[in-house]
Design a protein that fits this description.
Layout (H helix, E strand, L loop, with lengths): L9 H11 L4 E2 L5 E2 L3 E6 L2 E6 L1 E2 L2 E2 L2 H11 L9 H14 L5 H13 L6
Antiparallel strand pairs: 1-2, 3-4, 5-6
Helix pairs in contact: 1-4
Length: about 120
Amino acid sequence: MEQEGLKMDPILEHHYKNLAENKAVKNEDGSVSTVYTAQVDVDGVPTLIPTVWDGKILEVSEAAEKAKASGVKWPTAPTHPELREYDVFLHKEMKPMEPEEARKFLEIIKAGKNDNF
């Protein structure tokens, strides 16, 4: 059976897209922020969203508007503590890489070739 692509968590995809498009925020300590997640309630459901958009860390309210307008189904959980656990897990899965490497990684995921990473 042919796969159209592998599913990647939207927060992880946002991370890799920001790396690929060179839209990460460069912090004073030399690190970079690609998602800087926040928890918001969407229709009463705890939802994890990125606050890094277009190379800037936005206020949570503005980030929530962007996240909603994106049409992406952001991660949710029954409770905020459970969502926090998932957020910690996601951050452990985020790998630092150069823009070209991130672009190739996203192409591999889109093609469904999980044997390449």
